[in-house]
Amino acid sequence: MISNYKFTENAFLPRTVVIPLVQEKDSICVPVVKPEEVVKEGQLIARSDYSEIHSSVPGTVKDICHLRCPDGRIEKSIIIQTHGSFDYLGKKINAEPWETLSPASIEKKLLDKGIINTFSCFKPVSLSEQIKTIQRNKTRAIIVRLFDEDTLRISDSLLTKFYYEQIYKGAKILAKTIEADGIIFVMSNKEIEERSLENDEKQGIYYLGTKIKKYTNGFKRELISLFDKTLKKNCKFGISRKDIFIDSYTLLDIYNAVVYGLPVMSRCINVTGNCLASSCFLNIRLGFTLKELINQLGGFIKQPGSIIINGRICGTAVTSLDIPITKYVKSVEFLSNANLTDSQVYSCIKCGACRTSCPVHLAPDILFSYVLKKSDIPQAFLNTATMCINCGICNTVCQARIPLCQAITMIKYKTEQINEKQE
After folding, report:
1. Of 53, 296, 323, 390, which one is least surrounded by beta carbons within 10 A?
2. Which of 261, 237, 322, 284 is closest to 114 using CA atoms?
3. DSSP state, 335?
């Protein structure tokens, strides 16, 4: 329950951090440091055309090697042993009046500070690249989701609870950067009422209420549908999938980057599960491994049978405690075997539940058969995989426990790559 959390806490400093060079979709950063090199807190350690990665601690680069990431993939990572003085932590940092900055200077700050958009934890993207793309559009809107798309996770909701003012200002900073037509904040009806929030047509700011406990409410398609049904008539602008959909985490990063000049060095993580004595909402340095996190929390009270990153519905299950916290991690849940169900995969029983429950009306069973058997399916049918919103409902309703969503994601990824090459 969100009401059970009264404050955020800073985790202890890690002895060693492991920072993967892939923090967003399809963007591999190249290291700009070498083993045995001494780095400062916040120093640039890797970059790509649209992204930058900074050291979360001061210390010495011990190695650059391949390690497993929270999304299950093995990526090249920089290992830094902590020592030395901090340049940001514990220091007084003066706020800069962002209102006086030009859109171009704000945009440069967002690139330099390594901001990524984690609206989709499954597919985080470079915010700088999104800004470049939307600047080519005639109309530009920002849709801010202030709750979690996974109803079994409360990380975004907690962040909104504790940092609403900063998140709100982060949205206005982004709106100035892209010269947006307006901002739509999507949140629970209850919170809009409690905060006494009202639309401000002069500034192009609107509030869209929804039932956040209803699953699939937090995806692009559903937010656009909700807008069309309730707010479109009274709003001076429209929205589409081409606009910037963003979350509370990204907006807080934008605020800290532009107002205080802080690169992305930490994440507020909701740590939960019946294997722990209590749950908490910790501000954790990037690269902090789960093993060191558990040691700081006093160890397990039960042996975990599964470790879930970013929620049971939309997240990923990992088995190693050597997994590091990255920019796209929002929650970690440690579950005992008693809380796990049978994970054995059986043959499809042709019940059709995946088709009837899919919010975008795909045929997950047919797409899975293509991955499994390479059956003869028209390309036009395979292209429907790009409509998948990765909600995971097909997996949830499948009585045979077939990894339907994962199979569709494979097709979707390959199809998108082919389409990008053709463009």
Report:
1. 296
2. 261
3. E
Residue 248 and residue 121: Cα distance in Å, rounded?
Answer: 12
Compare 139 and 185 and report the one with higher pLDDT: 185
Rg (CA), the chain: 22
Type of residue at 27: S
CB atoms within 10 A of CB 317: 14
- Residue 294 to residues 21, 33, 210, 278, 338, Cα–Cα distance (Å): 24, 29, 36, 12, 20
Query: Distances from the Cα of 305 to the Cαs of 263, 314, 318, 321, in angstroms?
Result: 35, 19, 10, 12
What pLDDT score does 338 carry?
74
Task: Say how many C-beta atoms besides its own lie within 10 A of residue 95's C-beta.
Answer: 10
Give the tokens for residue 97. 């009046």
Backbone angles phi, psi at 312, to 5 degrees: -70, -25
DSSP lists the bridge partners of residue 65 as 77
Map residue 369 onto helix, strand or coil. Answer: helix
Interior CA angle at 59 toward 260 and 30, to 5°?
75
Q: Which residues of 28-42 are buried (b: 16+ CB within 10 A; e: fewer)?
A: ebebebeeeeebbbb
- Inform me whether the pLDDT recorded for 423 exceeds 70: no
Tens-place pLDDT, residues 285-322: 999 999 999 998 999 999 998 999 999 888 888 989 99
Closest CA to 195 of 183, 203, 204, 185: 185
User: Under DSSP, is residue 362 helix (H, G, I), strand (E, B) or coil?
Assistant: coil
Which segments of 37-154 does DSSP mark as H helices, in order? 103-112, 127-134
Q: Identify which of 12, 14, 5, 11 has the alpha carbon closest to the alpha carbon of residue 322.
A: 14
CA distance 182 to 136: 16
